[in-house]
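Re: the 165-residue chain
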Amino acid sequence: MKLKRSISNIPLCFFLMVGLSWEVGAYDEIQLSKLKQLGNCVACDLSGANLERENLWEANLTGANLERANLWKAYLKGADLSEANLTGANLWKAYLKGADLWKANLKGADLIWANLERANLSEANLTGANLSEANLQGANLQGAVLDGARDCGTQFDWGEENSGC
């Protein structure tokens, strides 16, 4: 009887372990509040945070973890995102004009219709990023990795790129 009861608890234990491990990767509410109040959050964990339409003008997010964060239509003009982790982030229609993304990890990020005009993307990892219809005119792409990035209607200094359509 006891053995049967113990075996029936295995699915419950598995569910709890998976649920608790999911929470470990969640963003820190205190750090999110700090960002919204002070406009900076250096090296903080905002992975998976919803920053949709947030005004983060000139915010200092150096080294921040923004993996899978929702930055849809976020205003990040002049923001410092150097060495930030933006893997898989949603930056659709984000305004990043003049932003510093030096050594940022944008692997698999969605940058459709993003404005990256005059942004510093030197040494950034854009592997597999979707840059469709993005504006990269005047952007510094020196040393940037663009392997597998989707360019469809993407604006560069040399014109429109449609190789990924």
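The radius of gyration is 19 Å.
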